[in-house]
Amino acid sequence: MTTPIMPEPIRLWIADLRSGEYQQSTGNLENNEGFCCLGVGCKTAQKNGIKIYAYEDKLESKGKIIGFSLRKQKSALKWLNLQNPFGEFRGSSFKSCDTLIDLNDEENYSFNEIADFIEARWQDLVKEPV
Question: Are the C-beta atoms of residues 55 and 100 closer than 8 Å to each other?
Fold first, then answer.
């Protein structure tokens, strides 16, 4: 049996998480402090031609990516091929969490630690390993 190859969108997302280009924050895909790990995934998708929805009318949030999960960012969700908008991973529970949102917001994993996690468990995050 051959080992599945990591999809290009996941590889690019991991590289962006490790790039140092994005400040990390919690609670939303993007806010005035920075991005959550899924928000970086949206930026990666956007850099690759995927439509990302941003606030147009909220003064303090104008231009920021809409949402706290990928629920309103269906194009990014599809491009990344994640099984759900929260970055839920299959398999045994990891610590007390089972989503990337938990790692980012509750466990306070750095982007580098989240990138390592995605790299090791990407097959548990995507709809179907390719």
Answer: no
